[in-house]
Amino acid sequence: MHENISKQLLQEMKIRRPAVHCLTNTVVQALTANTLLAVGAIPSMSSDIAEVADFTKSADALLVNIGTLDGDLKTSIKAAIAAARDNNIPWIFDPVFIDRSRPRAAYAKELLSLGPALIRGNKGEIALLGGSPAELARKTGAIVAMTGVTDIVTDGNMEITVEGGHELMSLVTGIGCAGTALLGACLAIVPPEKRLQAVAAGLSLLGEAGEKAATQAAGPGTFAALILDQIYQISQSSLQERKE
């Protein structure tokens, strides 16, 4: 199921080229942008309070990643989310490291009331926000993706598990963050009722790319480049299938 949906999503991605505005941590900006470009999406990254609302209004999805959080970014995040809500643009929340900082966790819980379309985190982050993935999904109305050895995606009623990936993915800073941006691009091109399947398909794509990259990689350094190549090649292959 995920394979067919992934192909359809990638075909639409290349045709529609959704814009994803990314308020993300400074460590992962380049990898995040390159991942979006590899599937045909258009990234932007400005967090300047003077223009963040305009960038968000002209985007098809908004990513909020709090990996490197400071006061200025907090202000920009709120302005961007307000613009997304006013313009019916889905926003995606990646609550990075909230289990390491009580102020960060408190800020993350504030954002939950602002209607994210998707919350993606690891087991500890999801538990801190709302217990189980299904509980958090019911509490917020968001799709929840809890990633790990096996990924769990739920809307609070239905649940999809996604297998795949490779341990090298955990040894490259930003693979998960870039993956969340990819999920944002997926949500940008589907109606709300298709979001659960789109998130599962996006995670499946990332896992497949990781597995293929690992067969050629000598270690984390080459893997980082190879997973981008694989995401691009899978995307191009899907587009070629559509033409045929």
Calculate the mean pLDDT score and round it: 93
Radius of gyration: 16 Å
Given the helix and strand composition, which structural class is it? alpha/beta
Strand portion:
5-15%
Largest sheet, in brief, is: 8 strands, mixed
At the first level of CATH, what is the class? Answer: Alpha Beta
Looking at CATH, the homologous superfamily is Ribokinase
Low confidence ranges: none
Q: How much helical structure, as a percent, in the residues? A: 40-55%
* First-last Cα distance: 21 Å
Tell me the total number of β-strands. 8
Give the oligomeric state of the chains in this entry, treating copies of one chain as homo and distinct chains as hetero: single chain
Structure description:
The protein is an alpha/beta fold and 244 residues long. It has one domain (2-243): UDP-N-acetylmuramoyl-L-alanine:D-glutamate ligase (3-Layer(aba) Sandwich). The chain contains ten helices and eight strands. Strands 2-1-3-4-5-6-7-8 form an eight-stranded mixed β-sheet, with helices on both faces. Helix 1 (2-16) packs across helix 9 and helix 6 packs across helix 7 (133-140). The longest helix is centred in the last third of the chain and has 24 residues, at 220-243. It is globular. It comes from Sneathiella sedimenti. It catalyses: 5-(2-hydroxyethyl)-4-methylthiazole + ATP = 4-methyl-5-(2-phosphooxyethyl)-thiazole + ADP + H(+). It is an enzyme of class 2 (transferase). This is Hydroxyethylthiazole kinase. Belongs to the Thz kinase family.
